[in-house]
Specification:
Metallo-depent_PP-like; metal ion binding; alpha/beta; Purple Acid Phosphatase, chain A, domain 2; globular
Length: 332
């Protein structure tokens, strides 16, 4: 099937320019290249926990994303996972892909590359289908891998497959079935992923190091901290001076700082169903912003400055985070 979008050749060869290669002979992280704007800046939107065929205000969030995306001329969109509810995709011919993605994110400002990671709900379906490059024949914005790197001239993005870290999906799956093809043996998979990520972060000379995963590391929302990521992933982020950890999983928007590092923890999981009503006070002393509702984040980067703006379903600015090399400040 041919894509319903007639994307221009310049988009395909320019802003959508992706070069697939391996980071090193021993590393499993695929490395992609994405060009920045001519003025040296980069901008992108962050959305998570969205795929509900337009329901639960998914379409309304998409409409505001399109407006902001066009105004900022964003370079790409980042999805933090749980791309298709409730149980991922059934196969390459599952109409859920078009009904939850192609037919929802139709705005002009969203016709850019989408970089997607998997969430726990995606693992309940046919994971190999969601990773299949054949989806690019249906909608060539789509790119989903387990873990990978997107390199730009001013920032490197490290996308991490966080679902296999979480013990309960293996030990207490309840009535759910998870597709662990490509993950087992689990211990080896996680060990290799952590080694490859640590090596890639250590070798990075980017102005900004941004790590993206589905699960929270720090959160005051429904799920709270993910203890397995706090134990295994967070030390690597601290040691390698990561600037932002961006996640979904909790269906809210939040910003949490760190008293022991420069990492800023941003949650963008308000792509559709939200308003859970839970609030965990564990990280309240580090909490900068929390919104128990739908929305998304827009991030703008230059070599020396970064800003993240949190928007609600009406396009209202809820919170601003501004970073510069050597300083940090945020405004509600």
């Amino acid at each position: 099937m041919v894509s319903r979008f007639n994307l221009s050749l310049s988009f395909r060869l320019g802003m959508f320019c992706i070069c697939l290669c391996f980071l090193s002979a021993s590393a499993d992280l695929r490395r992609l290249e994405h060009r920045i704007k001519a003025d040296g800046s980069l901008s992108f939107l962050v959305l998570g926990d969205w795929g509900r065929k337009g329901a639960y205000n998914q379409s309304q969030v998409a409409r505001q994303m399109g407006s902001i995306g066009e105004r900022l001329n964003v370079d790409f969109i980042v999805s933090t996972g749980d791309n298709f509810y409730d149980d991922g995709l059934k196969g390459i011919n599952d109409p859920t892909f078009q009904n939850s993605f192609t037919k929802v994110y139709t705005a002009k400002g969203l016709q850019k590359q989408w970089y997607n990671v998997l969430g726990n709900h995606d693992y309940r379906g046919n994971v190999e289908a969601q990773l299949n490059p054949l989806f690019r024949k249906i909608d060539d914005r789509w790119l989903c891998l387990r873990s990978f790197i997107v390199n730009t001239e001013i920032a490197e993005f490290f996308f991490v497959d966080t679902t296999p870290f979480v013990d309960k999906y293996f030990l207490r799956p309840k009535h759910h079935r998870y597709d662990w093809r490509g993950v087992l043996p689990r211990k080896e998979y996680l060990s290799n992923l952590l080694k490859d990520l640590d090596l890639a972060l250590r070798n990075s000379a980017a102005n900004w190091k941004i790590v993206v995963g589905h699960h929270t590391i720090k959160s005051v929302g429904h799920h709270g901290d993910t203890k397995e990521l706090v134990k295994h992933l967070l030390p690597i982020l601290r040691e390698n001076d990561v600037n932002l950890y961006i996640n979904g999983h909790d269906h809210c928007l939040q910003h949490i700082s760190s008293k022991t590092s420069t990492i800023q923890f941003l949650t963008s999981g308000g792509g559709s169903k939200a308003w859970k009503g839970d609030f965990n006070i564990i990280n309240q002393n580090e909490l900068k912003f929390y919104y128990d509702g739908q929305g998304f984040i827009a991030v703008q980067l230059t070599r020396t400055n970064a800003s993240a703006t949190f928007y609600d379903i009406y396009g209202k600015v809820l919170h601003n985070l501004n970073l510069s090399k050597g300083s940090l400040y945020s405004n509600a």
